[in-house]
Amino acid sequence: MSLPNQFLATFAYPILVADIGGTNARFALVHGPDTETEFCVPTATADHSDISGAIRATLDKASGAQPRTAIIAVAGPVTGNKIPLTNADWVIEPLKLIEDLSLDDVIIVNDFEAQALALPNLEGSDIEQVGRGAPRPASTKFVLGPGTGLGAAAMIHAADTWIPVPGEGGHVEIGPVTEEDFPIFEKIERVGGRLGAEQILSGSGLPRLARGVSLSMNLERSFETAADITQAAEANDAVATKTLETFARALGRVAGDFALSLLARGGVYLTGGVTPRIDRFLTDGQFRRSFEAKAPHQSLMSAIPTYIVRHGNPALEGLVAFARSPDRFVVELKGRRWSRETVVSNATG
Fewest Cβ atoms nearer than 10 Å: which of 50, 105, 195, 341? Predict the structure, then answer.
């Protein structure tokens, strides 16, 4: 089956790929389809006034190659010619980037779309399986990442092609299921009259969950950050421990909901900054039991594998995969690709 021309992406090498987070910007250079990736030293976003300055500083320390294409992942939706970052002061202007760095093309995608692009290539030490199940080849995968927020994206396999689908799945509704959950959930503060998954299943949401747990246990705690909770759990604090146990069960249910919704027989993958800090709560059985507890479909769920992603930067890995083999993927580029011709047209128009 051949794809329409608008989906057949080609890029000029060298290609700069970038994963722009709220704290750090990470870059790599892809010199050609069969060359080794040149990973660059990460830089703090606060150290540079804009992304052009960060890229220049990075290239100065790299091999010296002048990129012709930039493929950039950002947290948040890609709309218009000015893209503000969610957790940093930068505003990314693709047309200005083309002028500043003499680029031919700039492509900007969602950060979890980039993570989805990595999923077909993750193997070996890149991932740690949690529980049973085996991935079905050439089947839909899903990535769920509790970090500052709760990111989510699907990697659909159709017509012999991988199709990343970003979304706002982190804002689905969540509620209690077990008897242990009910007294906790009734104490959790609502936001806008509802309880979305991100409001507790994220670094920013963990303190809200902990307050609900402490109230249900009639114990006073003043955890301000997710780090406060994970550190207290390491010291066997009762509230912190129960908070992370509740977190793992709820994350398992949400992951299972997405697996059912999409029949993600290729597996569900956990990423995000929170995941590696609570991995013992994800591997002790509670997460997986909640994932599988989807009557009447327990048998189906038991066959779908779940993984903790151990790769150091899956978003960057996904962008590299797309840069090397764009024909493997269908990525929507309308409104998300800017070219030098656009700059010239604007200047002469």
Answer: 341
SS3 153: strand
Bridge partners, residue 26, by sequence = 19
Tokens of 325: 């083999």
Backbone torsions φ then ψ of 140, nearest 5 degrees: -55, 140
String of DSSP letters for 239-266: HHHHHHHHHHHHHHHHHHHHHHHHT-TT
Instruction: Count CA atoms closer than 13 A to 282's CA, side-chain side.
Output: 21
Q: What angle do CA 342, 29, 98 make, to 5 degrees?
A: 20
pTM attached to this predicted model? 0.91
Of 73, 61, 255, residue with least CA distance to 146: 255
- CATH fold label, 5-110+324-348: Nucleotidyltransferase; domain 5 (3.30.420)
Task: Provide CB contacts within 8 A for 164, sequence distance 6+.
Answer: 109, 113, 116, 117, 153, 154, 155, 156, 318, 329, 331
pLDDT at 276: 95
In CATH, the architecture of 123-309 is 3-Layer(aba) Sandwich (3.40)
**In the chain, domain spans:** 5-110+324-348, 123-309
Give the number of residues written for the chain.
349
Q: 115-170 pLDDT, tens per residue?
A: 999 999 999 999 999 999 999 999 999 999 998 889 999 999 998 999 999 888 88
For 91-130, the DSSP string reads: EE-HHHHHHHHT-SEEEEEEHHHHHHHHGGG--GGGEEEE
Residue 224 burial by Cβ neighbours in a 10 Å radius (0-12, 13-18, 19+): exposed
